[in-house]
Specification:
elongated; five-stranded parallel sheet; about 450 residues; 14 helices; eight-stranded mixed sheet; alpha/beta
Length: about 450
């Protein structure tokens, strides 16, 4: 009997045991969805703290419902462990680990490699392994396949299935969650593609689209985020030009998006944040150099976006100059360090780089973020203000809005008479705008 013939009944009668390696923003919601659909699930993570929290039913991810996690743990449908020897108990394991950049802005695949090595030592025949972490095209076949085959002594396609299905998690999205976001699957071999897709169809409400190979699926994910990077780079560059020309870029975009076809609105900001959009183009440009190809348009947009925190502080300095103050010694209140509105995720947040740029000029900064009371950066913890009051605002020389949180009283902030540099256009409805300048 083939692997396919063995696995299909297990999927249909839900006797398949699921595994998720990496219990972060992608992995934990995926593990919860698997368990909610009737599959016993084991979560693997090297951080004992996360494992202990999951096993105690304590949620730490915004897109997971607390009650769901508690029920699944209490009914033993979901458990977590740091012991990778339990990989031998699963029939399907999704790898959802970080893929950051190193200090040289090159892909750091160490988490994927280490996870693959750990899995290979305990991989049993008939298991499906799927990488969900965003990476460069070729990772699944060039990096993972040899490791799994050598570590397990098994042969891909005959003894186990291997594929790539990119995560599409958008933290804080009120409409699309893990369960209802369409999936893409690319695997090595037609049987692997069919069976892995069947697994996702059994646990997700969204559609599943299959492609011809893992490399196509890997490139598809890079395209999704590079598309956004390039368009945000375009609008950031236009924002700089519009400022020089005395034109409101926000009004320009609002007017352009009235066109019902051929235009999608993107907005400027102090930089790019999150795990994917600022990083993925670097993965692609790095891989492209292997083929002697330079992604000139993509690299140009990356340069624009990477410079936005510095440009933001330059603009802030000009605002202070108009009030006869210098950046050096000024007190700046930063509103928001999360990388997007109404979430507690500050990975790659441009606000943190903006704060660093302020410190380079000699400015003093404090921050307020209702979702991020403190954050860790380069081994150091930074504490935010506990409350945002008129007294707090008036104690500063400049307020800069770097995240568009809805739980902030911007009307009050603007009424305090302190100059406000609004990088997210959240103050657009404030009537008296003498002290407000938008990016």
């Amino acid at each position: 009997m083939s692997i396919k013939e063995e696995l299909i009944p297990k999927i249909q009668n839900k006797t398949l045991t699921m595994g998720v390696c990496g219990l972060g923003y992608v992995g934990l919601p995926l593990a919860v969805d698997k368990a909610k659909h009737g599959f016993r699930t084991i979560g693997f993570d090297i951080q004992q703290e996360k494992v202990d929290m999951v096993n105690a039913g304590k949620n730490y991810i915004g897109d997971v419902v607390d009650a769901d996690l508690q029920e699944l743990v209490s009914t033993r449908m979901l458990k977590a462990t740091t012991d990778f020897s339990e990989v031998c108990k699963v029939d399907f394991v999704a790898i959802c680990v970080p893929t950051p950049l190193d200090k040289h802005q090159q892909p750091d695949i160490s988490y994927v490699r280490d996870s693959t090595i750990a899995i290979s030592k305990h991989l049993k025949p008939g298991t499906m392994v799927v990488l969900e972490s965003t990476t460069y095209p070729g990772t699944t076949e060039e990096l993972m396949r040899p490791i799994l085959e050598e570590g397990s002594g098994l042969k891909c396609g005959e003894d186990f299935y291997l594929g790539f299905s990119p995560e599409r998690v958008d933290p804080g999205n009120l409409i699309y969650k893990t369960s209802n976001t369409p999936k893409v699957v690319g695997a090595i071999g037609a049987d692997a593609t069919e069976v892995i897709s069947m697994v996702y169809r059994s646990i997700l409400d969204g559609d599943v689209t299959t492609v011809s190979s893992p490399a196509v699926a890997e490139m598809e994910k890079i395209l999704e985020n590079t598309y956004r990077n390039v368009n945000i780079g375009l609008i950031n560059e236009l924002a700089i030009l519009c400022n020089k020309m005395g034109i409101d870029i926000w009004e320009v975009v609002d007017a352009a998006k009235t066109k019902p076809y051929g235009f999608q609105a993107f907005y400027p900001g102090p930089g790019l944040g999150g795990h994917c959009i600022p990083l993925d183009p670097y993965y692609l440009s790095w891989k492209a150099r292997e083929y002697g190809f330079h992604t000139s348009m993509i690299e140009a947009s990356m340069m624009v976006n990477d410079r936005m925190p510095e440009y933001t502080v330059e603009r802030a300095g000009k605002i202070l100059n108009r009030h006869k103050k210098a950046l050096n010694g000024s007190k700046v209140l930063v509103l928001g360090v999360a990388y997007k509105q109404d979430i507690d995720d500050y990975r790659e947040s441009p606000a943190i780089r903006v704060i660093e740029e302020f410190h380079k000029t000699g400015a003093e900064t404090e921050y307020y973020d209702p979702f991020v009371p403190k954050y860790r950066h380069e081994g150091q913890w930074f504490q935010g203000l506990e409350a945002l009051t008129p007294e707090v605002v008036k104690a500063h020389d400049l307020v800069i809005v770097t995240t568009a949180h809805t739980k902030v009283d911007y009307e009050m902030v603007c009424q305090c008479g302190v100059p406000v540099f609004d990088c997210k256009n959240v103050c657009k409805h404030v009537k008296h705008r003498e002290n407000i300048e938008a990016l």
